[in-house]
Write a structure and sequence with these properties.
This protein is mainly α. It contains four helices and no strands.
Length: 85
């Protein structure tokens, strides 16, 4: 879990959302979905590499766990939680 949390915190600043919002234009839901998928891939890849063969199903469940941690930390830190009136 520590590795996932560390990598999610890095992903929150390292993955640039711009290309996703440019690509999807007014379809902000698609942009957010793909942006978050990129963050999950960024954060989970090193963990999968480190723990595959060490922890059972590390290659199967790390990405889904990483997404949950991403959402939790993002909300806790107020990243992307702006409310538009």
């Amino acid at each position: 879990m520590d590795d996932i949390i560390t990598n999610v915190k890095k992903a929150l600043t390292a993955v640039d959302p711009t290309p996703f919002f440019v690509k999807y234009g007014n379809n902000s839901w698609a942009a957010v979905k793909e942006y978050q998928a990129a963050q999950v891939a960024y954060a989970s890849a090193p963990v999968v590499k480190k723990y595959t063969g060490v922890l059972a199903a590390a290659d199967v469940y790390t990405a889904s766990t990483t997404f949950i941690i991403l959402e939790s930390l993002r909300l806790d830190l107020g990243v992307g939680s702006e409310v538009h009136a």
